[in-house]
Amino acid sequence: MDPAAYGNRPLLVVRDLRIEFPTRRATLVAVDGVSFHIDEGEVLGVVGESGAGKSLTGAAIIGLLEPPGRIAAGSVTLAGRRIDNLPYEEMRRIRGSQIGMVFQDPLTSLNPLYTVGRQLIETLQTHLDLSQQAARARAIELLGEVGIPSPQLRVDQYPHEFSGGMRQRVVIALALCVNPRLIIADEPTTALDVSIQAQIITLLKRLCREHGAAVMLITHDMGVIAETADRVAVMYAGRIAEVGRVDQVIKRARHPYTDGLMGSIPKVGTDADRLTQIEGSMPRLTEIPAGCAFHPRCPKVFERCTHERPDLASVDGAQVACWLYAGAPAEAIDRV
Amino acid sequence: MSESVAVPPAGALVRARDLAKTFDVSPPWLARVLGRAPRAVLTAVDGVSFDIPPGRTFSLVGESGCGKSTVARLVVRLYEPTRGRVEFDGIDLATLGSRAAMAPVRRRIQMIFQDPYASLNPRWRVADIVAEPIRTHRLLEGDAAIARRVGELLEQVRLSPVDGEKFPHEFSGGQRQRISIARALASNPDFLVCDEPTSALDVSVQAQILNLMRDLQREMGLTYLFISHDLAVVYHISDTVGVMYLGRLVEWAAARSLFHRPQHPYTRMLLDAIPDLEMTGKARQAVAGEVPSPIHPPSGCHFHPRCPLANARCRAEAPRPRPREGGEVACHAVEEGRLPERGGRATVAAEFQAS
To answer: Which of B318, B316, B309, B201 lies closest to B264 in space, CA to CA?
Structure first.
């Protein structure tokens, strides 16, 4: 997609977001100094391994951080309006009308006691001035739009009567029903089989384009990002390691973590005897290393990485948080 | 796949013949009587045969509910097959009636499970978890000898012997899977059944475990039955790959042949649905339809409702496995030569859209 077609106006701006979990022993910093933006109609992929803070970032944006988690610093701005400090009721109105959500497990995001139609109608009537009949007609139309066969019948069925893929379609219908400007999709295809995954990704992409919604796509699956996102942010230990256009990041990863991550993904058709291996594992929140959080695992580490934290800096159009690109000693670059 | 097995039977360490397993999923008796609900039988595995030569990796791949994990459990005899048999090193496992008769074979067959959080006892120290098979099978006498062996095993999976003093919760998911592997190796097995061993892990950790499994296979000559839904992982780890759909093995072949020249329309569909890291921005082929319920599988070829090549015969008659390059495929369209050439992704997409 050509971002210029949408006028390149930032819809969502996140600045220096810091999420903390106060515990009895210490305050854990789960997300630290995360900044990014999403333009109107753009799909931003947020990728990272478990514990990288990607889901927390999504939850913070829609104001659904579970206590004791809290936004300790930074700001979230949606279409020019700051939304991270709104009262509960006001935030509730924004969820659904301005920001839609699609979660990993469609069974937990639907109420098992209500028919699918009732949940859609309730959402429509909460945010739009529609009569019962008009809302029902719109609900049926939406179910058809997300590719559910015979929506007139399915509208009166309960979530358990739908298969996993069909349920995720219902969740997408719910997320899109009042035409939000931003969809936050947290691992929308992770619970689905690969053939169903392809259906859901194609659907999500098409609908967001038709409705002009921007998407923040949170996933651990680089494959999903590669075929869906315009830009991608790679997160590691609560920080953004690299942000850039998808093709840039995937084909020419700058950050050693992204590079290792790409190499560790097995690919059909690539006959590698061994996969690239990043030694060790992501640090726990209690023991995030000083300096660059990746330095103990980094094959290109040098002295500066161990005590000074790198900020995102522009490197050939992408943004990378790595000292390699800011006056690293020649021998460190040689080892690249 | 009765007679036409490509691998010479003499060379197989593990041989499954016409394996089948059904589960009774009927409602309780009272509900059946009052609600007039009929008995229901779920056919999880329906006539699966394969051979695994020693030192090789055979993978089963398929979507959820295709019966691949049931096959794994049948092979290690956690389930009794409803039909068919499993031979291990020439011994028909069904002939080993008692636990005592089964024990020497059990020692040689071990299993690694998907969830390293659920498969390790949280109240045991790692050293005791790893030592359990040694003690059960009385492989070593004396605490010192066992402790030495546990230390060796932990080093073999790239952990430290001092980790034995810790409890499972002190380890990350990848490290726990290493502990599971160390435990599986403790009884000096020949054959490991790995049921989705990396599905719960992050990709960088998955790479560590896959590399480790490969190294161990080389060092110890292990034979693997590898169960996974992830085609890229299967391509990477396997010598031979079998594709399952609704309880049946629809196609199997050498990994390269299967992935580069897939024959069965379902195999092609699965391959087309893989997200491709190279083709940034382009859509992968979405495929119509979903896996039907294994309680009421479609007649004839189970895949016919989703298959673009299905005709009247496919709806009526279950296809038998026929030889293909380095394996077998069960498809009427292949047998009758109705199979279109597989070009790029676009060609196959057109086929599916035309259907």
So the answer is: B309
Where helices occur in B19-156 by DSSP H, the ranges are 29-35, 68-75, 99-108, 126-136, 143-156
Q: Sort out which chain B residues have CB atoms less than 8 A from A265's CB and list them.
A: 203, 207, 232, 277
- What average pLDDT score do residues B185-203 get? 92
Instruction: Count H helices and E strands in chain A, helices first.
Output: 12, 12
pLDDT tens for residues B196-206?
Answer: 999 888 888 89
| Closest residue in chain A to residue B281, using alpha carbons only | A227
Give the mean pLDDT of chain A: 87
Bridge pairing between strands A43-47 and A231-236? parallel
Residue A226: how many CB atoms within 10 A of its CB? 25
Q: Are B277 and A273 within 8 A, CB to CB?
A: no
For chain B, helix (H) and strand (E) counts, in that order, are: 13, 12
Cβ contact (<8 Å) for B214 and A247?
no
Burial class (CB in 10 A: 0-12, 13-18, 19+), B91: middle
Residues in B touching A199 (Cβ below 8 Å): 286-288
Which candidate, B26, B16, B44, B83, places its Cα nearest to that of B291? B44
* Rounded-to-10 torsion of CA B7, B13, B19, B25: -140
CB A94 within 8 A of CB A34: no
Mean pLDDT of A243-247: 92
Question: Per-residue pLDDT tens for B278-331?
Answer: 655 555 665 667 778 888 889 999 999 988 898 999 999 999 999 998 899 999
Residues 6+ apart with CB under 8 A from A277: A260, A264, B204, B207, B208, B211
**Quick one: which H or E segment has residue B86?**
strand B83-88
- Give the count of beta carbons closer than 10 Å to the beta carbon of residue A66: 9
**Token duo for residue B109:** 């067959």
Q: Model confidence over A136-162: pLDDT tens digits?
A: 999 999 999 888 888 999 999 999 988
The residues, any chain, with a CB within 8 Å of residue B218's CB and separated by 6 or more, are none
Cβ contacts (< 8 Å) between A247 and chain B: which residues?
280-281
pLDDT tier, B56 (very low <50, low <70, confident <90, very high otherwise) = very high
For residue B20, the model assigns a pLDDT of 94
Question: Is A198 within 8 Å of B286 when comparing Cβ atoms?
Answer: yes
Contact yes or no for A193 and B235 at CB 8 A: no
Tens digit of each residue's pLDDT (9 = 90 or more) over A249-271? 988 899 999 999 998 988 887 77
The widest CA-to-CA distance across chain B, in whole angstroms, is 69
Q: Do B64 and A193 touch (CB under 8 A)?
A: yes
Return the SS3 of A320.
strand
- A45 min Cα distance to partner chain B (Å): 12
Beta strands at A99-102 and A182-186: parallel, antiparallel or unpaired: parallel
Residue % of chain B over a pLDDT of 90: 60
Which of B202, B209, B212, B264 to mutate against chain A (most A CBs within 10 Å)? B202
Please answer yes or no on whether A275 and B207 come within 8 Å at the CB atom: yes
